[in-house]
C-alpha cells in the first residue's frame, strides 16, 4: 500500500527525569505552515533548525524527503554552521540527489536527499523548503515535532489554513496542548498548535513501541477527493465504504481460470480444503510485486490482470484470492491492516494508518486469515506482523473494526531433544531435533529458506557448538494443522565441546541457550516493560559419558517464578548418562516499570542455569 508515514504517539509523564541524559539533537525551531487551496491542492512551508550535539545525532544532518505523483518539492535550501555560527556549507535544490525509493517495485515513489558528514560538533543545520500536495488531499501532513530518540525540542509550531466551507477532523494524541482555531477573512479557518521544551526520549530495554512515545497532532478534511475518487473517513464505516468502492468490479475472472478453479476444488470435502487448494494454486502461479502508482497505491489490480501477469502486491493478490473463493461460493473479505503498529487511532481513521492487506475467510468452524504474499506460511497462520493488530474488514455496507487473534505464550512452543555422545579428548557427536509451533514455527519456516552455508552460520551464532562440522540438516512441516508446526533434525560433530583441564572435563549442559539476554540493571526506569515474544520452551539433553569418566559435580536444580515467567531445570545422573532438562514459560504483555528489577533477577537465574557446566573426572 502507498507509504504515508504517520507517527502515533504517547508522551509519558515524568520525562523531565530524562534530563539526566544529554540529548543528541535539539530542535531549536520547527515551523510548519500548511495552506490548503482546495480539496485537490495544499502547500507546506517548512523551516527546521537542528542543533546536532554529537555523533549519535548526525543523521539529522542528512535531508531526505519521499515524494511521488502527488507530492513535489520546491524552494529547498540547507545551511550548515559550526558551533561558533560560522557558515560551513549551503545546499540548494540543485544540489539534491534523486533515487528510486523502492527498487524493484512498480511505484511512482522517489526520494530527494542530501548526505552531509559533520566535520565537528556541535553543528547547526537550517532547512527551508516547500512541498506541494496535489491530486487530492486525503489527510494533511501531521505535526510531529519529535520523531527520533535522543531529540529534544525547544520550540515547534504548526499552522493549517483551509478554505471556506472545508470541515477539518483533528486529533491530538498525548500532548497537553490545545489546538487554537481562528476564522480568517473570506471564511478561511486557521488551526494552530505549538509545543516548547520537550525533553528527549531515550532508549530502554523492553520499552513500549517507540512510535507510541512521540507527540503528534493529526488533521484531515471531513470529505476528500483523491485521484478522482471521493469519500469521507469520519467513521470506520465511512472508510470501509470508500475502500469497497475501489474494489467494485475488480474481481472478475477469465472463463478458463474458472474451469481450473473447479477442477481443483470440486472433489474437496470441506470448505477448508477448498481454501487450501486455491491458496496453494495462488502461491504456485503468482509472485509478489508491489504496485504504488497513483490510486493504484490503494486500489487493487483487477483479478484478471493478476492472473494474466502472474504477479501482484498485497492488494492485488488478496483481491485475486477473494475472486477465486467467490467462484466456489466461499465469502471472504479484503482487510486493511498495519504491520508496524498494533493499535489504530480509532477515532481518527486515515489511509496513512494502513500499509498492508490480508484476507479474512469466515468458515463455520474457524475464521481464517490469509497472508497472500508469503508462500512459506501455513494455511490460516496469523504471523507476527499481524497477530493482535487492529484492522478494518471491508464489506459492501462499510468497514468493521476487528483485532486479529494472537497466540497465547503457551501456544508458541519450542521443544528440543538432543543426544550428545562425549569423548575423553573433549570432542562430541551431537544429534538434536527441534519442534516448533506457531511463533517458533514462523522462525523455523524462515530458517528453512536459508542455504546450507547460511544455516551453519546461524547455528554457530545461537548454539554452543565449538569447532563443529555439520552432517545432515532436515526440515519437515505440517502446514494443514490448526496450529502449524515444523520439525528440524540435525547431526553435528564438535572437536572441542568439552574443556579439558588435567583429568577433568568441563561440559556445557545447554548447547542451545536461546533464552533472552539478561537486560542491564537500571537505577531509573522511565517506561513500563513490554514483552512481545511470549513462548514455552522445553529442553531435554541426554549426555553419554566417555569411558573412564564419572560425574564430579552438577549444578543445583533451579525453580524460579515471577510475573514474567517460570523456569524449572535440573541435571541428574541416570546410569552412565546425565540428563539435563528444563521447562520455561515467558509471558508477553505490558508490565509495570517497578517490576523491571525482578525481570533482571529472573533472567540472571535462568541464564546462569543454562550456561552452567557439569564436571567429569577420570576414575
Radius of gyration: 29 Å
Mean pLDDT: 90
Helix/strand/pairing class, anyone? alpha+beta
Which outline best applies? globular
Beta strands, count: 38
Model regions low in confidence, pLDDT < 50 over at least 5 residues: 1-19
Biggest beta sheet summary: 8 strands, mixed
Can you list the strand order of the major beta sheet? Answer: 5-4-9-2-1-10-13-12
Strand content: 35-45%
CA-to-CA gap between the ends? 68 Å
H/I helix tally: 8
Percent range of helical residues: 10-25%
Would you spell out the secondary-structure blueprint of this structure?
Blueprint: E1 25-36, E2 42-52, E3 63-67, E4 71-82, E5 87-92, E6 97-100, E7 106-107, E8 110-114, E9 123-133, E10 151-162, E11 168-173, E12 180-183, E13 189-198, E14 216-221, E15 223-226, E16 229-232, H1 236-247, H2 255-265, H3 271-285, E17 287-288, E18 291-292, H4 303-309, E19 311-312, H5 314-327, E20 333-337, E21 356-362, E22 367-370, E23 390-395, E24 398-403, E25 413-422, E26 428-437, H6 439-447, H7 452-462, E27 468-478, E28 485-494, E29 498-501, E30 504-508, E31 529-531, E32 535-544, E33 549-553, E34 558-562, E35 565-574, E36 577-586, E37 589-591, H8 596-610, E38 613-618
Helix pairs in contact: 3-5, 4-5
